[in-house]
Amino acid sequence: MLSRRTNLLAASAFVAAAMFSLPPVAHAADTLVKIGIDASLTGGDANEAELVKNGVLMAIEEANAAKTVKGVKFEGYVLDDGTATAGQYDPAQAAINMRKFVADKAVLGEVGPQMSGAAKAMIPIASWANLAMITESATNPAMTDPQNAAQYRPNGKPVFFRTVATDAFQGPYMANYFADVLKVKTLYVLDDTGAYGEGIADSVQAQAAKKGIKILGRDKLDPKAADYSAVFTKIKELNPDAIYFGGVLQAGVKVVKQAYDILPHTVIKGAGDGLFGAELFTGAGYPAAEGWYATQAGPHVSEDKSTEQFVAKYKAKFNKAPDDYTITAYDGALVIINAVKTVHESGKPLTREAVRDAVASSKLKTLQGEVAFDENGDIQDKVISVFQAHENKAAPIDDVVSQFKYIGVAPQS
Amino acid sequence: MTAVDVYLQQAINGVSLGAMYALLALGFTLVYGILELINFAHFNVFMVGSFVGLGMLELLGVMPNDPALTGLTLVGVLLLTFAVTMVFSGALGVLIERVALRPLRNIRGPASMITTIGVSYVLFNIVLLGFGADAKNFPSPLPQVQFAIGGAVLRLREILIWVISIGLMGGLTYFVQFTKMGKAMRATAQDPDAARMMGVEVDRVIITAFFLGSALAGAGGLMFGLYYNITSYVIGFQAGLRAFTAAVLGGIGNVPGAMLGGIIIGLVEAFGSYWISAAWADVIIFSILVLVLVFKPAGLLGRIAPNKS
Fold first, then answer.
1. CA separation for the pair B66, B137 (Å, rounded)
2. For residue B65, what pLDDT is reported?
3. Domains identified in chain A and CATH numbers
4. Do A230 and B271 touch (CB under 8 A)?
5. Closest chain B residue by Cα to residue A222
């Protein structure tokens, strides 16, 4: 008994001595800062997930090469929120991923998720840890709505930021486009029962009605079902000028195929950014995809002069053209890196809280232009770009940027 | 479209869907009839069948978005693709029986059924890892021929589904009712021990049941691809569950019952989506199942079988 206690004492004395005699950390290796990356790498949205993940990794690599923040080495920590059983993003998996990020002390910021349904599961967990999240494409407005503060900011300050606009703009602006530009009089609205799909379909429906478009009906499609022919037969009977589909590609591919098979080809077909992906062309393909409108909740910069260099470098590195959300993801990573830099250079310790505050007040020139956030975490410049699928035989079928023709910016009112 | 046209169109949609469920339901019923085993691996044999069909069509040079084939080429390509897909899927079913189920055959309790769930997930993940998670564009070699019946449209692909389903189901009924092997199957279903004493090779009967059931599931998978022009690794679960429901609804273990159940489920899905909402399709289907089972526990055409054990 006695000897054991003595040993213990001796051991703790030794440990204490060792601790105080360690050299100061400044001379040691660079501080490691991890940036979490959550994307739906499994399932229907895997192609886009790969693009955005690579965008973030590229930003991290560049920051390390250029030594943007002296004494800090960045590392990407990639987790997949898609599961095989869901066939797309899985909110439960997204929550597990966020717990992993929070559990890793080196993670000071996170880029993603792509999907609003995943974001809703992640934000409350991130809030308790004060971990700043920047999404490149989760556009459901609920997450930044101050009315939902109890749910998404249980710890007080907003932790969820976006480098894209929200469906509160994406949906209604597209409804404006339907009414003002395409002169649609009657509309049928569909969604895929997901958080994003339902939200954007609701917002389109509300704004379209306000604009005097008659809503002939609304249906919800199970993304795992194969057969929507009964619904499209019903739509054919009602004969609307246009249909709008709110949802992502798992249901989207089948919607595109069966709408082409069943509806008259004169019906105008529109969707949000959920349809804007390679699988539209590899899964549904032409002629079914021809003529579909889709939007992006950000400025169209991936074919712009200002991003030429970035696009060329990205293509050379990953052998695939980046899309607009690759750029908003890259921008998100730049914002986090810059926030870490601000905190580090001010001499304050690198904590999640300090990085969050720096993200909230950042004003940074990025690829899409200047990124700054309002008090809820939403981006200040809200631009919705409209595209239309049009077969481009010269480009590869999965080159989304070439298969979608940029039409212009959607009207704001 | 007038109301009559819409009803006709929904009936066409429903029967086509039902024909596919019926083919798949037959596999559940065949195996259950003989082994009293619910074979959940069947779900994904169907899914694998659609990928085999896709591979075979591409091997024959029929690519997605190619112009449609005509005449003898079309018939030849379809026959060959169906034959290869069905033989491959049938062989897969036999392999599953031989490797995963036979060693467990004499163990009482749910071990075999749980094993089939495991096998189902193995197939699911092999396809996921091998071919990726995105939906695959399926070639459509069928010409876009369609007939207008009033305002409703009957397309060649629907006719094809009906003809092939009726043909396969007729063939199966003939096989079970009039061939020696079919007689052996019915005997084994009634009483395996007595059948064995009468000289029936029960192992061969079981292998035949797995082969036939899985071959029909493979044909169903290929038809799914030709009909929707799409396939993906997730298609097995929903179609499989509906088909299983169809088999139970019609009376599991009963061959005509499986066909009837399939058609009913297909029609309920189409009209339920039309009258109420697509989102409620599952609720309607499974409510009907519950109601039928409450009043007729053995299913529509089933008889309560004497307890074998």
1. 11
2. 74
3. 31-165+304-372 (3.40.50.2300), 168-296+385-409 (3.40.50.2300)
4. yes
5. B279
